[in-house]
Every structure is written in structure tokens, then in C-alpha cells.
Amino acid sequence: MLSTMQDFPLTITSIMRHGTEVAGDAGVATWTGDGVRRRTYAEVGERAARLAGALRALGVDGEQRVATFMWNSTEHLEAYLAIPSMGAVLHTLNLRLFADQLVYIANHAEDRVVLVDASLIPLFAPLLPRLDTVRHVVVVGEGDTAPLEGAGKELHDYERLLAEAPPAFDWPELDERAAAAMCYTSGTTGNPKGVVYSHRSAYLHSLSTCTGNAMALSATDTVLPVVPMFHANAWGLPYAAVMAGADLVMPGRFLQAEPLVRLIESERPTVAGAVPTIWSDVLRHAREHGSDLTSLRLVPCGGSAVPESLMRGFDEIGVRIVQAWGMTETSPLATVAHPPAGAAPDDAWRARISQGRVLAGLEVRVVGDGDTVLPNDGRAVGEVEIRGPWITGAYYRDEDPGRFHDGWLRTGDVGTLSRDGYLVLTDRAKDVIKSGGEWISSVELENHLMAHPDVVEAAVVGVPDERWQERPLASVVLREGAAATPEDLRRFLGDRIPKWQLPERWTFITEVPKTSVGKFDKKVLRRRYADGDLRVRRADGA
Ligand code: ADP
After folding, report:
1. 3.40.1050.10, 2.30.38.10, 2.40.50.140, 3.40.640.10: which CATH number matches 345-430?
2. Mean residue pLDDT across the chain
3. How much distance in Å is there from the Cα of 393 to the middle of ligand 1?
4. What is the CA 520 to chain-centroid distance, rounded?
């Protein structure tokens, strides 16, 4: 074999070194509610070294798991850098999960130490006695720690630990394939499943995020991850920003429209990522108050389908939303919906409302009945499968091996793929409505309904039907004072989708139930329907 380039490992340590040395003058600001506190990346680098030293002194060794139970903040970034770089595994706990799920996850991952925001002690303390493997709790920030006492764990103060630790740490040479971080899916079906990221996967995912076909991050950017660092790594934005030497702005626990708009107006981020529900609140607020969000050059949005009306609304206030698709299992960024070069306006919109174009390094395919691979013709509908260097190859402790197929991950998402790599999702496998043998996309119906001026939110689920096996039920949230009837909405839909797909069952609700991470909770709607808890109106005419 010819001798080639150096076998230099792709690690988070390398991202940290670059960010905190070469880009040491850039930094991170965290919103406190009425202002920000700032730290340069050089300072963050020293504090990460101190944190690693302190954790080592607490006995953290090898691939032990160190968990975080924290909002997006400077200290969370320090944990993101220090824990993987010392060779341990960062485990971000999703604080929005139910108590039993959190206990299951922390015990399943065998977390040894937990870093907890002081503001979250009331939420965390009741879990603590049930966290069997946890020995140490490190409290970040000021607050009453009394509720944590009596659980048989050692309690520490983050700032004191850092002050007592040496300012430098002898970072180990790591294998790029070693575990760096883990995250559990929120478990919309069955128990949550753990995904373990390697140093290499985090590094390649960050590089990809910085490319022009993704987010084009550079040292001229200021990045605001609104998406929580405990949910799919805040879409990888923190590592990518540090790699790019971009500044970071962290929202802390202030995730409502009003403080977010204030933060955007004062810190003027250029890139901000959040799920569609957050952006629709922000849009409403910005319209009412004439807020200036134009510092944002790019708003990556995903986690669920991004309504076209939301994108158009942002276009009107001079801000560009770009849809992306991915999942905890895919690190998460897999496709990004930039339109192709020179696209006519209609084609550009078709691309923008797709889930996006597959990023270099990843491969996507759609698979039909009997695991046959379907053509990439933008028409054949099947389950989406994906593979690549930042796609998980298994769940932690090999749970659910059936989700893998010849080295591909079965995503549980259903859709089409075009010849030029654009993915269009029509549903999650479990949400597809099968009416008389034909598939109806709940997502498509929802998107069209949400484009109606009277509709704030709409969720569509399949319900049993004697004649067609399953038919769509539309649950609609109307704007205050609006009076649209099922007949009006059917007429509106009738111009956009085939007649046989129009729902005949309608219910008006005050809010669509959401999961812990803000997605429509269709399980709850199906159950309410089955229990007869919804007032359903029939409408057959158009
Ligand atoms: P879960 O919702 O199971 O906890 P994730 O938070 O990892 O898992 O979410 C991944 C799922 O979110 C994807 O499989 C897909 O169904 C959905 N999703 C993500 N982005 C989009 C998007 N742009 N459009 C539609 N669905 C999306």
C-alpha cells in the first residue's frame, strides 16, 4: 500500500483546541433574563480543563457517563467540551421527559455524576433517590440545595470545584471511534433508546454543518441554539460553532417568544435553530410588536414538518427559514432544504417545503414492502433508510436490532426521494392513514389546513372506519374569534388535495397535545377519540 496522510484522530478534543486557542477571542453569551453574561472561548477552554480535573478527582475514569440536567448555557458548553475530551461520555438528560423515563434512562446509561442547573433542583430532586449508579451531584449556579440532601449522594458546587482544580488538564490521546456522548430518543414508542455518538461522528457532523449546503457556519457568525442541548445535541450547533470559531448565544431557560425576541434584537445572532412551534410564536410576537429579526441570515428549522405558511411569514419579515430533517439517531443533521441553483420560484418553493437534500457523506433510500428498494423518482413512497458516518449503527446495549437493515437505519419515516436527493416525508410510519388500501399523508393535510388564515394549529390522525378501514380525523385549533366551519375548511382543502382524501370527521380543540419535545402527540388524540372525549362533527359535502 502507498503510504498516505497522517492518521490523525477526528476528536472533540481537536474541536475544543481549535475553538479555545485559535478562536479564543470569540465567545459565548448566556441570557440571564435581563441581560447576558459573557465568556471568551479562551476562558471556556481553561474552565473546561478545570472541570475535567475536578471530575477526574471525583473518580471519573474511562468511558464513565457524566450526565447533564441543564438548560443551554456557557456551563453546559463547558461540559460538552470537557467530558468527551477527558475520555468520559457526556450524557444529556432531557429534562422534559416524565420522571419514570428519566429514571430509566439514567439507570440504563449508568450515569456516575450529574451536573444540574440550580433552577432545576425542584424537578431533579425527586428523581435522585432512584438514580442507582449516581454517586455525585454537581450543582451549577445559586439555589437551595436542601431538596438534594438525604439521597445518599455527594453534593458539590460547580464553581467551587472549578476554583479548586488545576487550570490545565493533560488531555488524553483518544481513539476517534471511542464513545463521546449519548442521547436517548424521547421514546414516542416503547422505552427510550440510547444512541452513542463517537468522537469521529461528532467531528464529521460538525464539519458537515459548517458547509454551504448545510449552514455555512464561519467565524463571522453568531449562533443561537434555541433547540435544547439535551435534545439531539442542539442539532450539533454548539460543536459546529466552536469548530467554526463562531460566537454562541445561549437562551438559558428563557424559551418563550418575548425573551427570545429581546435576545435576538440585542445580541443580533446570524443563525438560530428551533422547532416550528417556537418560530410560530416568535413570528406572531414579532408581527405584533414590529420586532427586528433581520440579523438572522439563516433559521434552520425541523424536528417536525415546517409549515409553508411559517416560511412565508418569515420571508415577509426578512428572515430565511431553511427546513432540515434528522433524528437523534442521525446526530441529527441529515438533509437540508436549500433550493437547487437557478430554480424558478415554484421549483424553489417545492424544494424549500421538502425535508431537504441529503448531505454529502450520507446515503438515503426508500424501501417498500418486502424490503425492496424503490426508485428515486420523487413518486415511489416507502420507508426512509439512511447510512453514513454520523448515523448510529445500533442502539446502546443492542436494543431493538430490528431497526437496522443490512447496515442501514430504518428511520420510521415514510416518504419519497427525488433523483437529485430531495427527501419529502409524507408521514411517520405509525401515523400514515390507510384508507381503502390507499395512503393518505396526515402531514400534507395538516400543512394545508395550517395555511388557512383562521387556523392556528391542526393535527390529523387516522381513526377506524367501517367502510374504508381508516379515515382522517382533523383536530383544528382556530384563531380567537374565528368562525370557520368544517364545510369552509373542506372547501379550502378541496382546492389543494384529491377529494377522496378530505376528512369527514372534524373536531375543534383549544390546543394540539404535544410530546415532551413539542411534537404533536397523536397517541393522545387517538385515545381521546376512542374514549369519546372529542366532540366530532361530520361534514361530507364540499
Ligand atoms: P423522537 O421524536 O422519536 O423523539 P427525534 O426527536 O430524534 O425523535 O425526532 C426525529 C423525528 O422527527 C424524525 O424521525 C421525523 O419523524 C421527525 N422530523 C424531524 N425533522 C423533520 C422535518 N423537517 N419534517 C418532518 N418530520 C421531521
Report:
1. 2.30.38.10
2. 95
3. 18
4. 14
